[in-house]
Amino acid sequence: MRPGVLVAALAIGLALTPTPAAADFHLVSIREVFPGDSAAPDAEYVELQAYTAGQNFVAGHSVTFHNAAGTAIGSETFDKDVADGRNQMTVLMATPAAESRFGVVADATMAAGLLDPAGGAVCWAALDCVAWGSFSGGSLSSPAGSPAAPAGIPDGMALRRTIAPGCATLLEAGDDRNDSAADFAPVFPAPRPNSVAPPESACGAAGGGQQGGPGQRDGKAGAPQTLLRRRPPQRSRDRTPTFRFGSTDAGVSFECKLDRRPFRACRSPFTARRLPYGRHSFRVRARAATGQLDPTPALDTFRIVRRLR
């Protein structure tokens, strides 16, 4: 074969050879939004979650913030990719105050004052948007439907996407119904940066539901999720505060931790022994019968004061 013909043949062959798919950022949804609260109004964050692997190339892509009228009031851009690209991984964008309050290291920093609990919207890279409260703006870069939490995000609560449709233990494309009111609900905040391994697992072979109850995933017990159902006020004179908690799974036990003390077995309700005045933190995690622990314990921070102002 003449050299020119050989080169042309090689070029055609290379053009027809499929190339491996590159990592991307398109199959990612907004998972959780926290606008701060009365005790720490600047402790704000937005958390994203992937519903397939290889979506960790987020560098150069932005989260846009809108007020209740729909006006864009700010935009924050990821300056680097995240390391963990497995399916269900999360990416956390948070203010320094949120990092301090929840004891996490965010994957990107955002300015404070961009999330109004009374009403607003957040959009991720023109791919996914969530609106809440008194939001009445026009069209966003992606459909958001009716606002979640029409009265506003309750003080101390975050908005989190439900993953119940289809497989209730796994974020899937079908979990985004383009309707904030259907997709999101208030929960206690639990920010999860990319460094935390995702606990979500696929459902059994039958699909469309859980095998053997909430704790059964692919026929095996999975990591349980912890729910903090009652906590003390952010500022209180009560030196023996009480916490109530539960889990998405049945048949679990719990471990509690106050401040720097180690985790110890506990039950709900849990009442702390007499605490000193000042700032405190409480964590609780569920343990499955197999011994698997919730990798993201529920967290609350509070302050005990001598008198309320």
Overview of the molecule:
- This protein has 309 residues and is mainly β.
- It folds into 2 domains: 28-187, no CATH class; 223-304, Sandwich (Immunoglobulin-like).
- It has 3 helices and 20 strands.
- The chain has helices at residues 3-16, 96-102, 180-183; strands at residues 28-35, 44-50, 62-66, 72-77, 90-94, 108-109, 119-124, 128-133, 158-161, 184-187, 216-217, 220-221, 226-230, 235-236, 242-247, 253-258, 264-266, 270-271, 278-287, 298-304.
- The strands form 5 sheets. Strands 6-5-2-1-9-10 form a 6-stranded mixed sheet. A 5-stranded mixed sheet has the order 14-20-19-16-17, with no helix packed on it.
- It is globular and about 50 Å long.
- Mean pLDDT is 85; it is low at 1-22 and 205-221.
